[in-house]
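Priority: low. Protein: DNA 3'-5' helicase. Input follows.
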Amino acid sequence: MVDGPLIVQSDKTILLEVDHEQATEARHAIAAFAELERAPEHVHSYRITPLGLWNARAAGVDAEQVLDTLLNYSRFPVPHALLVDIEETMSRYGRLRLEKDPQHGLVLRTSDYPVLEEVMHAKKVKPLLGPRIDAETTVVHSSGRGQLKQLLLKLGWPAEDLAGYVDGTPHPIRLTETPGADKDTGGWQLRPYQQVAAENFWSGGSGVVVLPCGAGKTLVGAAAMATSSTTTLILVTNTVSARQWKDELLRRTTLTEEEIGEYSGAVKEVRPVTIATYQVLTTRRGGIYPHLELVDGHDWGLIIYDEVHLLPAPIFRMTADLQARRRLGLTATLVREDGREGEVFSLIGPKRYDAPWKDIEAQGYIAPADCVEVRVDLPRDERVAYAMADDGDKYRLCAASDTKSDVVERLAARHRGEQLLVIGQYIDQLDDLAERLDAPVIKGETSVKERQRLFDEFRAGGIHTLVVSKVANFSIDLPEASVAIQVSGSFGSRQEEAQRLGRLLRPKSDGRAARFYTVVARDTLDQDYAAKRQRFLAEQGYAYTIMDAQDIPNPA
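Result:
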Protein backbone atom coordinates (compact mmCIF):
# COMPACT_ATOMS: atom_id res chain seq x y z
CA MET A 1 0.00 0.00 0.00
CA VAL A 2 1.35 3.44 -0.92
CA ASP A 3 0.74 6.65 0.99
CA GLY A 4 -0.87 8.28 -2.04
CA PRO A 5 -2.86 11.52 -2.27
CA LEU A 6 -6.09 9.84 -3.44
CA ILE A 7 -8.87 7.97 -1.69
CA VAL A 8 -10.92 6.13 -4.31
CA GLN A 9 -14.42 5.10 -3.18
CA SER A 10 -16.97 2.62 -4.46
CA ASP A 11 -19.56 5.37 -5.14
CA LYS A 12 -17.24 6.63 -7.94
CA THR A 13 -15.96 9.58 -5.94
CA ILE A 14 -12.27 10.38 -5.54
CA LEU A 15 -10.91 12.41 -2.63
CA LEU A 16 -7.67 14.32 -3.25
CA GLU A 17 -5.54 15.49 -0.31
CA VAL A 18 -4.46 18.94 -1.51
CA ASP A 19 -1.38 19.24 0.72
CA HIS A 20 0.13 15.89 -0.29
CA GLU A 21 3.47 16.11 -2.10
CA GLN A 22 2.04 14.18 -5.09
CA ALA A 23 -1.24 16.14 -5.22
CA THR A 24 -0.34 18.18 -8.32
CA GLU A 25 0.68 15.23 -10.48
CA ALA A 26 -2.32 13.19 -9.26
CA ARG A 27 -4.68 16.08 -10.05
CA HIS A 28 -3.35 16.28 -13.60
CA ALA A 29 -3.65 12.52 -14.05
CA ILE A 30 -7.27 12.21 -12.90
CA ALA A 31 -8.40 15.39 -14.71
CA ALA A 32 -8.44 13.37 -17.95
CA PHE A 33 -11.41 11.32 -16.78
CA ALA A 34 -12.89 12.72 -13.53
CA GLU A 35 -14.81 15.93 -12.79
CA LEU A 36 -14.19 18.12 -9.75
CA GLU A 37 -17.30 18.53 -7.59
CA ARG A 38 -16.14 20.29 -4.41
CA ALA A 39 -12.93 22.11 -3.60
CA PRO A 40 -12.66 23.19 0.05
CA GLU A 41 -9.26 23.94 1.57
CA HIS A 42 -7.74 20.53 2.26
CA VAL A 43 -9.63 17.77 0.42
CA HIS A 44 -11.05 18.05 -3.09
CA SER A 45 -13.82 15.72 -4.26
CA TYR A 46 -14.03 14.35 -7.83
CA ARG A 47 -16.61 12.14 -9.52
CA ILE A 48 -16.08 9.53 -12.22
CA THR A 49 -18.88 9.63 -14.81
CA PRO A 50 -19.54 7.60 -17.97
CA LEU A 51 -19.24 10.73 -20.14
CA GLY A 52 -15.89 11.59 -18.57
CA LEU A 53 -14.62 8.06 -19.23
CA TRP A 54 -15.88 8.08 -22.83
CA ASN A 55 -14.28 11.46 -23.49
CA ALA A 56 -11.02 10.08 -22.15
CA ARG A 57 -11.36 6.98 -24.33
CA ALA A 58 -11.99 9.08 -27.45
CA ALA A 59 -8.91 11.19 -26.62
CA GLY A 60 -6.72 8.07 -26.59
CA VAL A 61 -6.71 7.29 -22.86
CA ASP A 62 -7.53 3.61 -22.40
CA ALA A 63 -8.94 1.78 -19.39
CA GLU A 64 -5.53 0.43 -18.41
CA GLN A 65 -4.17 3.99 -18.03
CA VAL A 66 -7.18 5.04 -15.93
CA LEU A 67 -6.84 2.01 -13.66
CA ASP A 68 -3.08 2.49 -13.32
CA THR A 69 -3.62 6.12 -12.27
CA LEU A 70 -6.07 5.11 -9.54
CA LEU A 71 -3.94 2.21 -8.30
CA ASN A 72 -0.69 4.20 -8.31
CA TYR A 73 -2.01 7.22 -6.40
CA SER A 74 -4.60 5.63 -4.09
CA ARG A 75 -3.80 5.48 -0.38
CA PHE A 76 -6.06 2.48 0.19
CA PRO A 77 -6.97 -0.48 -2.02
CA VAL A 78 -9.27 0.58 -4.85
CA PRO A 79 -12.61 -1.27 -4.70
CA HIS A 80 -12.44 -4.15 -7.15
CA ALA A 81 -16.04 -3.58 -8.33
CA LEU A 82 -15.15 0.00 -9.29
CA LEU A 83 -12.16 -1.15 -11.35
CA VAL A 84 -14.36 -3.62 -13.19
CA ASP A 85 -17.06 -1.00 -13.74
CA ILE A 86 -14.57 1.52 -15.19
CA GLU A 87 -13.16 -1.06 -17.58
CA GLU A 88 -16.60 -2.16 -18.73
CA THR A 89 -17.89 1.42 -19.11
CA MET A 90 -14.91 2.44 -21.24
CA SER A 91 -15.29 -0.68 -23.37
CA ARG A 92 -18.78 0.50 -24.38
CA TYR A 93 -17.31 3.35 -26.46
CA GLY A 94 -16.84 2.18 -30.03
CA ARG A 95 -18.69 -1.12 -29.64
CA LEU A 96 -21.08 0.48 -32.14
CA ARG A 97 -19.54 2.23 -35.16
CA LEU A 98 -21.01 4.45 -37.82
CA GLU A 99 -19.29 3.65 -41.09
CA LYS A 100 -19.64 4.37 -44.80
CA ASP A 101 -20.48 1.24 -46.79
CA PRO A 102 -19.65 1.42 -50.54
CA GLN A 103 -22.93 -0.28 -51.45
CA HIS A 104 -25.38 0.74 -48.73
CA GLY A 105 -24.12 4.18 -47.67
CA LEU A 106 -24.28 5.06 -43.98
CA VAL A 107 -24.43 1.97 -41.75
CA LEU A 108 -24.29 1.11 -38.05
CA ARG A 109 -21.92 -1.79 -37.45
CA THR A 110 -20.94 -3.76 -34.37
CA SER A 111 -18.72 -6.63 -33.33
CA ASP A 112 -21.14 -7.36 -30.48
CA TYR A 113 -24.42 -8.71 -31.89
CA PRO A 114 -26.53 -8.37 -28.68
CA VAL A 115 -25.67 -4.67 -28.40
CA LEU A 116 -26.99 -3.98 -31.91
CA GLU A 117 -30.11 -5.95 -31.12
CA GLU A 118 -30.65 -3.92 -27.95
CA VAL A 119 -30.41 -0.50 -29.60
CA MET A 120 -32.40 -1.54 -32.68
CA HIS A 121 -35.34 -2.34 -30.42
CA ALA A 122 -35.25 1.07 -28.73
CA LYS A 123 -38.44 2.91 -29.67
CA LYS A 124 -36.78 6.21 -30.70
CA VAL A 125 -33.96 4.53 -32.60
CA LYS A 126 -36.11 2.40 -34.92
CA PRO A 127 -37.29 5.24 -37.24
CA LEU A 128 -33.67 6.26 -37.92
CA LEU A 129 -32.66 2.83 -39.22
CA GLY A 130 -33.13 1.23 -42.62
CA PRO A 131 -32.93 -2.42 -43.70
CA ARG A 132 -30.81 -4.95 -41.80
CA ILE A 133 -27.81 -5.99 -43.94
CA ASP A 134 -26.49 -8.82 -41.78
CA ALA A 135 -26.30 -9.83 -38.12
CA GLU A 136 -23.81 -7.07 -37.32
CA THR A 137 -24.82 -4.28 -39.71
CA THR A 138 -27.88 -2.16 -40.41
CA VAL A 139 -28.49 0.79 -42.72
CA VAL A 140 -28.86 4.25 -41.15
CA HIS A 141 -30.84 7.03 -42.79
CA SER A 142 -28.19 9.65 -43.56
CA SER A 143 -30.39 12.46 -42.24
CA GLY A 144 -30.50 10.75 -38.83
CA ARG A 145 -26.76 10.52 -38.20
CA GLY A 146 -26.66 13.20 -35.51
CA GLN A 147 -29.90 12.24 -33.79
CA LEU A 148 -28.84 8.58 -33.71
CA LYS A 149 -25.58 9.46 -31.95
CA GLN A 150 -27.50 11.47 -29.35
CA LEU A 151 -29.87 8.57 -28.68
CA LEU A 152 -27.11 5.96 -28.50
CA LEU A 153 -25.25 8.07 -25.94
CA LYS A 154 -28.40 8.23 -23.79
CA LEU A 155 -28.76 4.45 -24.09
CA GLY A 156 -25.21 4.05 -22.79
CA TRP A 157 -23.69 2.86 -26.07
CA PRO A 158 -21.81 5.87 -27.55
CA ALA A 159 -21.05 5.24 -31.21
CA GLU A 160 -17.68 5.93 -32.74
CA ASP A 161 -18.32 7.91 -35.92
CA LEU A 162 -16.03 6.60 -38.67
CA ALA A 163 -18.35 7.41 -41.57
CA GLY A 164 -16.12 10.16 -42.94
CA TYR A 165 -16.95 13.61 -44.24
CA VAL A 166 -17.76 15.43 -47.43
CA ASP A 167 -14.74 17.20 -48.88
CA GLY A 168 -16.39 20.61 -49.17
CA THR A 169 -15.42 23.23 -51.73
CA PRO A 170 -11.62 23.40 -52.07
CA HIS A 171 -10.01 26.71 -51.14
CA PRO A 172 -6.24 27.07 -50.61
CA ILE A 173 -5.23 28.23 -47.11
CA ARG A 174 -1.70 28.14 -45.71
CA LEU A 175 -0.18 29.27 -42.43
CA THR A 176 2.51 31.94 -42.76
CA GLU A 177 4.79 30.28 -40.19
CA THR A 178 8.51 31.02 -40.11
CA PRO A 179 10.33 27.88 -38.90
CA GLY A 180 12.71 28.63 -36.05
CA ALA A 181 11.19 32.07 -35.53
CA ASP A 182 11.01 33.83 -32.19
CA LYS A 183 9.85 37.18 -30.84
CA ASP A 184 13.16 38.84 -31.76
CA THR A 185 12.89 37.94 -35.45
CA GLY A 186 9.28 39.06 -35.71
CA GLY A 187 8.18 35.70 -37.14
CA TRP A 188 6.02 33.07 -35.53
CA GLN A 189 5.26 29.37 -35.53
CA LEU A 190 2.73 27.08 -33.92
CA ARG A 191 3.54 26.13 -30.36
CA PRO A 192 4.07 22.38 -29.81
CA TYR A 193 0.75 21.90 -28.00
CA GLN A 194 -1.13 23.81 -30.73
CA GLN A 195 0.41 21.51 -33.35
CA VAL A 196 -0.55 18.39 -31.37
CA ALA A 197 -4.09 19.72 -30.77
CA ALA A 198 -4.62 20.37 -34.50
CA GLU A 199 -3.20 16.96 -35.44
CA ASN A 200 -5.33 15.15 -32.85
CA PHE A 201 -8.45 16.91 -34.12
CA TRP A 202 -7.73 16.05 -37.75
CA SER A 203 -6.91 12.41 -37.10
CA GLY A 204 -10.10 12.10 -35.01
CA GLY A 205 -12.24 13.70 -37.73
CA SER A 206 -14.35 15.97 -35.53
CA GLY A 207 -14.30 16.98 -31.91
CA VAL A 208 -13.34 19.52 -29.28
CA VAL A 209 -10.00 21.09 -28.35
CA VAL A 210 -9.80 22.43 -24.78
CA LEU A 211 -7.10 25.04 -24.10
CA PRO A 212 -6.80 27.78 -21.48
CA CYS A 213 -7.83 31.33 -22.30
CA GLY A 214 -4.85 33.10 -23.84
CA ALA A 215 -3.24 29.88 -25.08
CA GLY A 216 -4.04 30.51 -28.76
CA LYS A 217 -7.14 28.48 -29.60
CA THR A 218 -7.60 30.63 -32.73
CA LEU A 219 -4.29 29.32 -34.10
CA VAL A 220 -5.47 25.73 -33.60
CA GLY A 221 -8.48 26.69 -35.73
CA ALA A 222 -6.22 28.29 -38.35
CA ALA A 223 -4.04 25.15 -38.44
CA ALA A 224 -7.14 22.98 -38.98
CA MET A 225 -8.23 25.32 -41.79
CA ALA A 226 -4.81 25.03 -43.44
CA THR A 227 -4.96 21.23 -43.27
CA SER A 228 -8.50 21.21 -44.68
CA SER A 229 -7.87 23.87 -47.35
CA THR A 230 -11.60 24.14 -47.97
CA THR A 231 -14.27 26.77 -47.49
CA THR A 232 -14.81 27.26 -43.77
CA LEU A 233 -17.63 28.58 -41.58
CA ILE A 234 -16.55 29.98 -38.19
CA LEU A 235 -19.24 30.55 -35.54
CA VAL A 236 -18.39 33.03 -32.76
CA THR A 237 -20.04 34.64 -29.75
CA ASN A 238 -20.19 38.28 -30.90
CA THR A 239 -19.14 40.79 -33.54
CA VAL A 240 -16.03 41.94 -31.67
CA SER A 241 -14.87 38.32 -31.55
CA ALA A 242 -15.62 37.93 -35.28
CA ARG A 243 -13.34 40.86 -36.09
CA GLN A 244 -10.58 39.52 -33.82
CA TRP A 245 -10.77 36.20 -35.69
CA LYS A 246 -10.52 38.05 -39.01
CA ASP A 247 -7.49 40.07 -37.87
CA GLU A 248 -5.75 36.94 -36.62
CA LEU A 249 -6.41 34.99 -39.83
CA LEU A 250 -5.09 37.88 -41.93
CA ARG A 251 -1.96 37.95 -39.75
CA ARG A 252 -1.32 34.19 -39.58
CA THR A 253 -2.53 32.79 -42.92
CA THR A 254 -2.41 33.50 -46.64
CA LEU A 255 -6.08 34.59 -46.60
CA THR A 256 -6.83 38.11 -47.85
CA GLU A 257 -9.53 40.63 -46.90
CA GLU A 258 -11.57 39.62 -49.96
CA GLU A 259 -11.61 35.95 -48.89
CA ILE A 260 -13.01 36.53 -45.37
CA GLY A 261 -16.65 37.56 -44.86
CA GLU A 262 -18.51 38.72 -41.76
CA TYR A 263 -22.08 37.54 -41.22
CA SER A 264 -23.50 39.48 -38.29
CA GLY A 265 -26.34 41.80 -37.42
CA ALA A 266 -24.64 44.64 -39.29
CA VAL A 267 -23.09 42.84 -42.30
CA LYS A 268 -24.12 39.80 -44.37
CA GLU A 269 -21.07 38.70 -46.38
CA VAL A 270 -20.69 35.09 -47.57
CA ARG A 271 -17.13 34.37 -48.70
CA PRO A 272 -14.81 31.31 -48.80
CA VAL A 273 -14.15 31.88 -45.10
CA THR A 274 -17.25 33.27 -43.37
CA ILE A 275 -17.34 34.31 -39.72
CA ALA A 276 -20.89 34.38 -38.30
CA THR A 277 -22.24 35.15 -34.84
CA TYR A 278 -24.41 32.70 -32.91
CA GLN A 279 -26.85 35.55 -32.31
CA VAL A 280 -27.62 36.22 -35.97
CA LEU A 281 -27.96 32.51 -36.78
CA THR A 282 -30.47 32.04 -33.97
CA THR A 283 -32.56 35.10 -34.87
CA ARG A 284 -36.12 33.87 -35.25
CA ARG A 285 -38.81 35.40 -37.43
CA GLY A 286 -42.29 33.98 -37.79
CA GLY A 287 -41.24 30.76 -36.09
CA ILE A 288 -38.31 30.07 -38.45
CA TYR A 289 -34.58 30.79 -38.43
CA PRO A 290 -34.00 32.59 -41.75
CA HIS A 291 -30.20 32.68 -41.46
CA LEU A 292 -29.63 28.96 -40.89
CA GLU A 293 -29.47 28.60 -44.67
CA LEU A 294 -25.95 30.03 -44.34
CA VAL A 295 -24.97 26.78 -42.67
CA ASP A 296 -26.72 24.10 -44.69
CA GLY A 297 -26.98 25.99 -47.99
CA HIS A 298 -23.22 26.04 -48.68
CA ASP A 299 -20.66 23.31 -49.23
CA TRP A 300 -18.45 24.01 -46.20
CA GLY A 301 -15.54 21.63 -45.69
CA LEU A 302 -15.01 22.69 -42.06
CA ILE A 303 -17.19 24.32 -39.41
CA ILE A 304 -15.50 25.84 -36.34
CA TYR A 305 -17.49 26.51 -33.18
CA ASP A 306 -15.70 29.06 -31.00
CA GLU A 307 -16.55 28.93 -27.26
CA VAL A 308 -18.38 25.65 -27.92
CA HIS A 309 -19.59 25.46 -24.31
CA LEU A 310 -21.95 28.37 -25.13
CA LEU A 311 -23.74 26.77 -28.09
CA PRO A 312 -27.42 27.78 -28.03
CA ALA A 313 -30.11 25.11 -28.49
CA PRO A 314 -30.97 26.02 -32.14
CA ILE A 315 -27.32 25.52 -33.09
CA PHE A 316 -27.40 22.05 -31.52
CA ARG A 317 -30.46 21.20 -33.62
CA MET A 318 -28.78 22.57 -36.73
CA THR A 319 -25.57 20.64 -35.98
CA ALA A 320 -27.50 17.37 -35.80
CA ASP A 321 -27.98 17.74 -39.56
CA LEU A 322 -24.30 18.57 -40.25
CA GLN A 323 -22.66 15.29 -39.27
CA ALA A 324 -21.17 14.81 -42.75
CA ARG A 325 -19.06 17.97 -42.30
CA ARG A 326 -15.93 18.23 -40.18
CA ARG A 327 -16.65 20.09 -36.93
CA LEU A 328 -14.09 21.64 -34.59
CA GLY A 329 -15.17 22.97 -31.19
CA LEU A 330 -12.84 25.33 -29.31
CA THR A 331 -13.23 26.15 -25.62
CA ALA A 332 -11.38 26.83 -22.38
CA THR A 333 -13.79 24.60 -20.44
CA LEU A 334 -16.30 21.93 -21.42
CA VAL A 335 -18.37 22.86 -18.37
CA ARG A 336 -21.95 23.77 -19.33
CA GLU A 337 -24.24 25.08 -16.64
CA ASP A 338 -27.25 23.54 -18.46
CA GLY A 339 -25.78 20.03 -18.27
CA ARG A 340 -25.68 19.54 -22.06
CA GLU A 341 -22.10 18.29 -22.24
CA GLY A 342 -23.48 15.05 -23.74
CA GLU A 343 -24.81 16.94 -26.76
CA VAL A 344 -21.41 18.51 -27.37
CA PHE A 345 -19.93 14.98 -27.25
CA SER A 346 -22.54 13.56 -29.64
CA LEU A 347 -22.93 16.39 -32.14
CA ILE A 348 -19.65 18.30 -32.24
CA GLY A 349 -17.52 15.33 -31.25
CA PRO A 350 -15.55 13.99 -28.28
CA LYS A 351 -12.67 15.80 -26.63
CA ARG A 352 -9.61 15.43 -28.86
CA TYR A 353 -7.11 17.48 -26.84
CA ASP A 354 -7.09 18.98 -23.36
CA ALA A 355 -4.14 20.79 -21.78
CA PRO A 356 -4.10 21.56 -18.03
CA TRP A 357 -3.84 25.31 -17.46
CA LYS A 358 -0.87 25.00 -15.12
CA ASP A 359 1.06 22.95 -17.72
CA ILE A 360 0.71 25.75 -20.27
CA GLU A 361 1.65 28.27 -17.57
CA ALA A 362 4.79 26.26 -16.71
CA GLN A 363 5.84 26.47 -20.36
CA GLY A 364 5.54 30.27 -20.21
CA TYR A 365 2.68 30.55 -22.70
CA ILE A 366 0.14 31.98 -20.25
CA ALA A 367 0.73 34.27 -17.29
CA PRO A 368 0.71 32.99 -13.70
CA ALA A 369 -2.21 34.31 -11.66
CA ASP A 370 -2.97 34.95 -8.00
CA CYS A 371 -6.65 34.56 -7.07
CA VAL A 372 -7.98 36.42 -4.03
CA GLU A 373 -11.47 36.27 -2.53
CA VAL A 374 -12.15 39.51 -0.65
CA ARG A 375 -14.96 39.12 1.89
CA VAL A 376 -17.03 42.09 2.99
CA ASP A 377 -19.62 42.37 5.77
CA LEU A 378 -23.02 43.75 4.81
CA PRO A 379 -24.04 46.70 7.01
CA ARG A 380 -26.87 45.98 9.45
CA ASP A 381 -29.66 47.53 7.33
CA GLU A 382 -28.63 45.59 4.21
CA ARG A 383 -28.25 42.39 6.25
CA VAL A 384 -31.80 42.77 7.57
CA ALA A 385 -33.15 43.56 4.08
CA TYR A 386 -31.35 40.45 2.76
CA ALA A 387 -32.77 38.26 5.54
CA MET A 388 -36.33 39.42 4.81
CA ALA A 389 -36.09 39.32 0.99
CA ASP A 390 -37.78 36.76 -1.26
CA ASP A 391 -35.48 33.99 -2.44
CA GLY A 392 -35.46 35.37 -5.98
CA ASP A 393 -34.15 38.75 -4.81
CA LYS A 394 -31.54 37.65 -2.29
CA TYR A 395 -28.59 37.20 -4.67
CA ARG A 396 -28.92 40.59 -6.29
CA LEU A 397 -29.24 42.32 -2.90
CA CYS A 398 -25.97 40.88 -1.61
CA ALA A 399 -24.02 40.78 -4.90
CA ALA A 400 -24.76 44.42 -5.76
CA SER A 401 -24.25 45.81 -2.24
CA ASP A 402 -22.90 49.37 -2.06
CA THR A 403 -20.38 48.07 0.49
CA LYS A 404 -18.45 46.50 -2.38
CA SER A 405 -17.91 49.86 -4.09
CA ASP A 406 -15.60 51.14 -1.36
CA VAL A 407 -13.58 47.91 -1.58
CA VAL A 408 -13.26 48.24 -5.35
CA GLU A 409 -12.01 51.83 -4.99
CA ARG A 410 -9.36 50.75 -2.50
CA LEU A 411 -8.24 47.83 -4.69
CA ALA A 412 -8.11 50.08 -7.76
CA ALA A 413 -5.95 52.56 -5.84
CA ARG A 414 -3.67 49.72 -4.77
CA HIS A 415 -3.09 48.87 -8.44
CA ARG A 416 -2.99 52.40 -9.83
CA GLY A 417 -1.14 52.52 -13.14
CA GLU A 418 -1.83 48.86 -14.00
CA GLN A 419 -4.26 47.72 -16.68
CA LEU A 420 -7.36 46.92 -14.61
CA LEU A 421 -10.76 45.43 -15.43
CA VAL A 422 -13.81 45.72 -13.17
CA ILE A 423 -16.29 42.99 -14.12
CA GLY A 424 -19.88 42.50 -13.00
CA GLN A 425 -23.39 41.35 -13.76
CA TYR A 426 -25.64 44.25 -12.77
CA ILE A 427 -25.64 47.34 -14.96
CA ASP A 428 -26.62 49.87 -12.25
CA GLN A 429 -23.78 48.56 -10.08
CA LEU A 430 -21.32 48.91 -12.99
CA ASP A 431 -22.53 52.43 -13.87
CA ASP A 432 -21.95 53.49 -10.25
CA LEU A 433 -18.46 51.97 -10.21
CA ALA A 434 -17.57 53.60 -13.54
CA GLU A 435 -18.54 56.97 -12.09
CA ARG A 436 -16.56 56.42 -8.87
CA LEU A 437 -13.45 55.26 -10.78
CA ASP A 438 -13.84 57.84 -13.57
CA ALA A 439 -13.62 54.98 -16.06
CA PRO A 440 -15.58 54.09 -19.21
CA VAL A 441 -18.10 51.24 -19.05
CA ILE A 442 -18.84 48.61 -21.73
CA LYS A 443 -22.26 46.93 -21.55
CA GLY A 444 -24.87 45.41 -23.84
CA GLU A 445 -26.09 48.74 -25.21
CA THR A 446 -22.55 49.92 -26.09
CA SER A 447 -22.19 49.90 -29.89
CA VAL A 448 -19.70 47.53 -31.52
CA LYS A 449 -17.74 50.50 -32.84
CA GLU A 450 -17.47 52.07 -29.38
CA ARG A 451 -16.53 48.72 -27.81
CA GLN A 452 -13.73 48.27 -30.30
CA ARG A 453 -12.50 51.84 -29.72
CA LEU A 454 -12.39 51.37 -25.95
CA PHE A 455 -10.76 47.93 -26.17
CA ASP A 456 -8.13 49.30 -28.59
CA GLU A 457 -7.40 52.25 -26.30
CA PHE A 458 -7.12 49.90 -23.32
CA ARG A 459 -4.69 47.67 -25.23
CA ALA A 460 -2.60 50.70 -26.18
CA GLY A 461 -2.47 51.93 -22.57
CA GLY A 462 -4.48 55.09 -23.19
CA ILE A 463 -7.09 53.81 -20.71
CA HIS A 464 -5.90 52.07 -17.53
CA THR A 465 -9.28 51.09 -16.06
CA LEU A 466 -12.26 49.60 -17.88
CA VAL A 467 -15.60 48.60 -16.33
CA VAL A 468 -17.24 45.74 -18.27
CA SER A 469 -20.40 43.67 -18.07
CA LYS A 470 -20.70 40.02 -19.14
CA VAL A 471 -20.33 41.11 -22.80
CA ALA A 472 -16.56 40.93 -22.15
CA ASN A 473 -16.63 37.41 -20.69
CA PHE A 474 -15.69 35.67 -23.92
CA SER A 475 -13.31 35.96 -26.86
CA ILE A 476 -11.97 39.41 -26.02
CA ASP A 477 -8.21 39.72 -26.43
CA LEU A 478 -6.74 42.17 -23.89
CA PRO A 479 -3.08 41.11 -23.63
CA GLU A 480 -1.86 43.68 -21.08
CA ALA A 481 -4.80 43.38 -18.63
CA SER A 482 -3.09 42.32 -15.41
CA VAL A 483 -5.70 42.95 -12.68
CA ALA A 484 -9.42 42.10 -12.58
CA ILE A 485 -11.93 42.85 -9.83
CA GLN A 486 -15.12 40.79 -10.06
CA VAL A 487 -18.04 42.29 -8.14
CA SER A 488 -20.93 40.07 -9.26
CA GLY A 489 -21.61 37.23 -11.65
CA SER A 490 -24.06 34.73 -13.10
CA PHE A 491 -24.84 32.96 -9.82
CA GLY A 492 -22.58 29.87 -9.51
CA SER A 493 -21.30 29.74 -13.10
CA ARG A 494 -17.99 27.87 -13.22
CA GLN A 495 -17.32 28.61 -16.87
CA GLU A 496 -17.88 32.35 -16.35
CA GLU A 497 -15.31 32.39 -13.53
CA ALA A 498 -12.81 30.62 -15.79
CA GLN A 499 -13.45 32.99 -18.67
CA ARG A 500 -13.09 36.07 -16.49
CA LEU A 501 -9.75 34.92 -15.12
CA GLY A 502 -8.86 34.14 -18.72
CA ARG A 503 -9.00 37.84 -19.62
CA LEU A 504 -5.74 38.18 -17.62
CA LEU A 505 -3.75 35.19 -18.82
CA ARG A 506 -2.01 36.56 -21.89
CA PRO A 507 1.71 36.59 -20.96
CA LYS A 508 2.86 40.05 -19.79
CA SER A 509 5.79 41.76 -21.47
CA ASP A 510 7.57 42.06 -18.11
CA GLY A 511 6.68 38.52 -16.98
CA ARG A 512 4.63 39.60 -13.94
CA ALA A 513 1.75 37.58 -12.50
CA ALA A 514 -1.89 38.54 -12.96
CA ARG A 515 -4.14 39.29 -9.97
CA PHE A 516 -7.80 38.22 -9.93
CA TYR A 517 -9.99 39.55 -7.10
CA THR A 518 -13.54 38.46 -6.47
CA VAL A 519 -15.41 40.62 -3.93
CA VAL A 520 -17.93 38.57 -1.96
CA ALA A 521 -20.55 39.43 0.69
CA ARG A 522 -19.88 37.22 3.73
CA ASP A 523 -22.51 34.75 5.02
CA THR A 524 -24.82 35.19 2.02
CA LEU A 525 -25.71 33.45 -1.23
CA ASP A 526 -22.90 35.50 -2.79
CA GLN A 527 -20.37 33.50 -0.77
CA ASP A 528 -22.10 30.19 -1.57
CA TYR A 529 -22.13 30.92 -5.30
CA ALA A 530 -18.50 32.06 -5.20
CA ALA A 531 -17.50 28.63 -3.88
CA LYS A 532 -19.34 26.94 -6.76
CA ARG A 533 -17.87 29.34 -9.33
CA GLN A 534 -14.33 28.50 -8.22
CA ARG A 535 -14.63 24.73 -8.72
CA PHE A 536 -13.30 24.56 -12.28
CA LEU A 537 -10.31 26.77 -11.52
CA ALA A 538 -9.55 24.72 -8.41
CA GLU A 539 -9.47 21.64 -10.65
CA GLN A 540 -6.86 23.44 -12.78
CA GLY A 541 -4.67 24.09 -9.75
CA TYR A 542 -5.61 27.65 -8.84
CA ALA A 543 -6.02 28.32 -5.11
CA TYR A 544 -7.97 31.31 -3.77
CA THR A 545 -6.51 33.27 -0.87
CA ILE A 546 -9.21 34.57 1.49
CA MET A 547 -8.79 38.21 2.51
CA ASP A 548 -10.92 40.42 4.74
CA ALA A 549 -11.94 43.74 3.19
CA GLN A 550 -10.78 45.56 6.32
CA ASP A 551 -7.21 44.47 5.59
CA ILE A 552 -7.07 46.46 2.33
CA PRO A 553 -5.35 49.78 3.10
CA ASN A 554 -7.10 53.05 2.33
CA PRO A 555 -5.56 55.00 -0.58
CA ALA A 556 -2.89 57.47 0.49
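The mean pLDDT is 87. The chain is about 35% helix and 20% strand.
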